[in-house]
Specification:
Layout (H helix, E strand, L loop, with lengths): L4 E6 L3 H12 L4 E7 L2 H11 L3 E4 L8 H10 L5 E6 L6 H7 L2 E6 L4 H12 L4 E2 L1 H11 L14 H11 L4 H8 L3 H15 L4 H10 L5
Parallel strand pairs: 1-2, 1-3, 3-4, 4-5, 5-6
Helix pairs in contact: 2-3, 4-10, 7-9, 7-10, 8-9
Length: 214
Amino acid sequence: MANPIRVMIVDDHAVVRQGLKSFLRAQDDVEFAGEASSGEEAVGVVGEIDPNVILMDLVMPGMDGVETMKRIRDSGSDAKVLVLTSFAEDAQIVAAVRAGASGYLLKDVRPDELISAIRAVHSGDAHLHPSVAAKLMHEVAGPSGPRPGAAALTARELDVLKALTRGLSNKEIAADLSVAEKTVKTHVSAILRKLQVADRTQAALYAVRERLDT
């Protein structure tokens, strides 16, 4: 029999962690490897726990799931990350994918779907909740070449666009670029107009598709 899939849980809600632990322990091919109640704690213990798959919440106090994924990846861990969150419309969807998430599920997922997703990402496949997959496919569908507006972006607007793909807020972008928050808002408005997109998520997805985020 193959070694069980070692799964780590990262979620700030104790009830959620307990429910997931009970579920994982009932599976023949899965082993509950450990848990963390925050992103900071996860980064600190992931090396010791050495999981194959991490169930990661995105919205947590302090370090959020996207930043936690980046830190874990930078630590050298090769664990696959399966996002398990309550939000399908969050602008961090694209940031989570860019940070290395192998899957994205909502917390209303059926138990059989969750275990299938764990097995899939462990095997190297991607697994997205249908509503998330549909949203991403809708947003990135279109011509493969850049839209005319992309060439009109200034260097500073490109900097802001790259920050959007990281899931940063206007306040965080302002601090990162050492400019006023009002200036960032102006740049974001210009980006949406020039790229002919409706919101920040569409702009970020466009940047990823056209490789403008590197």
